[in-house]
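Running co-folding for adenosine-5'-diphosphate.
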Amino acid sequence: MTDRDHEVVLLMGPPGAGKGTQANLLASERGLEQLSTGAMLRAHVQGGTELGKRAKIIMDSGALVSDDIIIDMVRAELDRMRPIRVLLDGFPRTTVQAEALDALLASFGAGIDSAIELVVPESELVRRLLGRAAAEGRSDDNEDTIRTRMRVYLDQTRPLLDYYAVQGKLRSVDGIGTTGEVFDRVVGALGAERA
Ligand code: ADP
């Protein structure tokens, strides 16, 4: 298996930027498996597992679930994938997670190809999240929690953009517009480097 068989793309951006929607589209377009740590955690909550019970309290507060738990979850998924063709959505979110991901991928002879950042101003993010709260009733989409999630993003996750920028892997994409418009930009940003 050559390195070309692997493909790892990260979708990054603040809560409400549209990562889930774009990840979904991009995964089908490029034949990648979408791995969303938020969705995995919500499945645990739904299933009433021990992990789900612990995670729900943290998620409802807007804080991050511990790195160990998240890294173990992602490792278990990557372990069963050969080649590794994955679109990671909502992971990594901390420097510890980013370094763990690099080490994990390296152990499989893989590495990150690109990190896509969806750029959306904060006023628009809050508007979208409050709209989603009304439509879907996600329990972490209330005003207080949204504020905490924004702060956690700025403090813990945003610095990671630099981590990928200095490696020449960051592609920043304007996240304002229709789903289709944003998707075209995402594909354009990726297409330039690898077919
Ligand atoms: P959003 O980015 O819209 O806030 P997610 O579905 O990605 O939504 O995450 C929801 C919550 O799940 C986060 O606020 C956090 O508590 C938890 N979570 C998801 N991914 C991670 C991660 N990589 N590390 C730590 N916590 C996470």
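Result summary
The chain has nine helices and five strands.
The pocket of adenosine-5'-diphosphate is lined by residues 15-16, 37-38, 41, 58-59, 62-65, 70, 90-91, 93, 97, 140, 149 (CB under 6 Å).
Job closed.
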